[in-house]
Design brief:
The chain is mainly α. Helices cover 61% and strands 0% of the residues. The longest helix has 23 residues, at 25-47. The chain starts with 9 loop residues before the first helix and ends in a 5-residue tail after the last helix.
């Protein structure tokens, strides 16, 4: 699968999640989970003073 990287503001990501939340759950849940997992890792890195998130932490996808 080809992957792309996007740079979005926190507000834009929240808007995207809100719009995805209006769609059928079974279709969008994996994407929502992936966005939340990667976003959480990046926000945690910022809070810990790290300038950059490693590729390994970006790639981890878990369901909550």
């Amino acid at each position: 699968m080809n992957e792309i990287n996007l740079t979005l503001t926190l507000e834009e990501v929240n808007t995207l999640l809100k719009v995805l939340g209006t769609q059928p759950y079974a279709q969008v849940q994996p994407l929502i989970a992936k966005i939340q997992t990667q976003g959480s890792a990046q926000l945690q890195a910022v809070q810990n003073g790290q300038a950059e998130v490693t590729e390994a932490s970006k790639a981890v996808v878990t369901q909550k």
